[in-house]
Amino acid sequence: MSANTNVTNPNRKKKILLVAANPATSTVTQWPVGFWWAELTHPYWAFVEAGYEVETRSPKGGALEADGFSDPEHESGYSADDILSLGFKKSPKHLALLADTKSLDDVSPDGYDAVFLVGGQSPMFTFRHDERVKQLVAAFYEAGKVTALVCHATSVLLEAKLSSGDLLVKGKTWTGFADAEEKFADDFVGQRIQPFWIEEEARKLEGTNFVVDQAFRDFAVRDGLLVTGQQQFSGAAAARLVIEALGR
Length: 248
What we know:
This protein has helices at about 5-10, 35-50, 85-90, 90-95, 125, 130-140, 180-190, 200, 235-245; strands at about 15-20, 25, 30-35, 55, 115, 145-150, 175, 210, 220-225, 225-230.
């Protein structure tokens, strides 16, 4: 199946593979970590509103759990205004999409038009060194499919390589969670949160152009088939770039 399937079959719905991280435990804080609600629900809604089919999976499969601060009902009130995620949580139909996800084991790019990796705290501990995730991203990209990652999910791009041996981001402009945002988060909770900072690591790479915008403002970048979003407020912006790339 080619990337132009929908040109010859315009009646088939475009299909997006939405990948969220499995629950884990931070090796830095010892807190439970997972996906970030807004980075899943906001892109999901953008794709559904565009008439796309969305399938949610995770690397290992099984039930997904969100980061506490991303929960609109969390006692901190950090995400209290995220009414889209609140609505998703209150809908049995939608909540069921996260209750027993399929793994990535049998995924082929041929079955989808694009892949979208959701961020959160867990990807910092489970995505970067997971060969399945890195190979998935490279496979979609080399198959000519739009390949999108947002926030901490962009940690995959620090190591994901193409079949040529080159980093996928070689010669690319991309974004991800900024150092300034990591510092704010550390100061907010009063301790170091992440095992590494994406911007700091990205700037060590040669031949790639890592860019960031204002802290905690929606910002997404498209460079050919690669779409990246800076942080949790960039999920919908990244999804819109995917939709633009697919031509609706």
